[in-house]
Amino acid sequence: MSTTTRETTIPVGRWRNLGIIAHVDAGKTTLTERLLYKTGTIHRTGEVHDGATTTDHMELERERGITIGAAAVRANWTPQGDQPHRLTLIDTPGHIDFAIEVERSLRVLDGAVTVFSGVAGVQPQSETVWRQARRHGVPLMAFVNKMDRPGADFDAVVAQMRDKLGANPWVVARPVIEGEHMTGLVDLVGERTWRFDDDGTPSVHGWDGTERAAHADARAELVAAVADRDETLAELWLAEEPIDADVLTAALRRGTLAGLGSPVLPGSAFRNVGIEPLLDAFVAYLPSPLDRPSVVAHTDNGDVSLAPDANAPLAALVFKVVNQAHGPLAFVRVYSGRLHVGDAVWRSGTDRVQRVGRLAVVRAEDTEAVDAAEAGDIVAIAGWKDVATGETLSDSHRHVRLETIQAQPAVLSWRLSPERSADLLKLGNGLARLAQEDPSFRVSTDPETGETLVWGMGELHLEVMVERLRREWGVQVRTGSPRVAYEETPAKASGPVEGKLAKQTGGSGQYARVVLSLAPTGEDANRFVDKTTGGVIPKQFQSAVEKGAHSALLEGPRGYPVVGAEVIVLDGQAHAVDSNEAAFHRAAQIAVKSALEATGTVLLEPVMRVSVSTPGAAVGDVLGDLQRRGGQIVHLADTQERTEIEADVPLAQLDGYSTALRSLSQGRASATVAFEAYRPATVQEASRRSA
User: Fold this and answer.
1) How far apart are CA 59 and CA 63, in angstroms?
2) For residues 219-241, b (16+ Cβ closer than 10 Å) or e, as one string?
3) Which of 39, 46, 325, 431 is the most buried (most CB within 10 A)?
4) Distance, CA of 141 to CA of 528 (rounded, Å)
5) 382 pairs with which residues across the strands?
6) pTM of the entire structure?
């Protein structure tokens, strides 16, 4: 077994870039820790509950016992009797608020292993990540973890994979349970049995005649299931030819790469049981970069297809940015060509050429310098301060753009302000860095109040960001829910209303008289119409009247901007000496304010289009909650496994919605929220002055 990551002689066909994905608390991080230990990458294992794991290196992750950022780890593995293989493992978060981490990891990985709890089975977020992987066409395996726990049921989890995920599980190994513990596993492909002692050290023996007879049915079932999807194996099976381990492995690999099925193995990561067979399975069934389809890149002359060829022009994607104490690291997947230290590469995000100063492979927070990377590699570029997720790097003389990474729209916002005004600059820098790292986190300013708003995927997401501001940037912040941006519109048409300014006390004075009427238009914009005749308002003052009217509409009687108003100027009067632009500006303001007081206003509130995708079992609860929030259902459609609901809901009623939805659906529903329109508010007495 090779224990160094400085293995440069391993050809790309023996590389495996794979993600470890699952529901929160299925044991992904513990499994990654054991994989690193068994490959010799680390020399002792840490536990999540002790806050000592390699990939959960952020202090926050260790305290909360959850994975927040996807961490890339390089290791080598040599299956028994085989050659060394290079693994790049990415441990991803399971919490729905950090879905962007899973999304961008799946975007650049070649294969994935989904971890299921042997007790809890297929959980809600397992469904989400499985669908994400399927959408990206990533070949999948499954590892049924926690088989040492009371109540663990391997067959029940396999059945749930069929029922809940629509998966085609191929059971390639079955657990050996003795007493309450899993002590080994039966390898149905290799016709052998693995045993693990109390330290997790394995011993392997081939089946004897008794074992062969005992496991014959299970192996025949596996062969039949794979033959159903593989013509080569089907021919041998129908001809009743003997099917050895090599033939069956090759058929399983073909089916897995084509997405026709998913090999499933049992184990207990915590007890070090089943880790070596899983590592062997990564090598046997998951793709190398050469097995993956070409990626499409956009150029000025149309789209081109890029094969994973190290001798082709460079195309690489920045899929993650991490700001560490010694500077930013940009994680890059190289799709074609080579990247060397010192190369000048074109960046799509800045449309300029920049030199690569330092390349590294990463083991969680530790980095190891390398001189070059080639097609299929996942490496990090150190020192680029303004780099962003989704950027393409290409040759300086041949610009290509890869499909960028899509962030889900943020659904929740908080107001933020520093507790000390001296921290304002630090807060700005911290927010800019967090937004650079996480495309699903964004920062804006409330145009009404000038306050800073931060937008995220849910309360946990925003809590973590605020906590990182405190720890990493030393900024203590106050948080609050954002004020809803209401608007007003005239309730009815007014008659003629006069606005008059007459300050004539000798010398040059201020005189202007404007008569106008106001009417609602039902549109978003305001309109201004001048119907005066005979020069009652001299031409040089007409623009001042229009500006005065518009400035008066910036704040209506309730304290909010006025929209959908038509201002019609009917009459006016000027003084030969005392009239000027300022006087007409003020007179128009007085007239509009008086007209608004006369007509009264209707309060308008922003209404959001909420699109919910939910399992059928939760539809009633989700609909009931939307209606309690004043939502109007505009679309309802059943698909095979889920129900899609669209509703228009006042923004003011959506406080805490993502948390409520998660609770109503056990985390299985997802929602997007987008602005739809301003409509009359259900509660008309809302006023900024009382808010």
Assistant:
1) 6
2) beebbebbbebbeebbebbeeee
3) 39
4) 65
5) 329, 358
6) 0.66
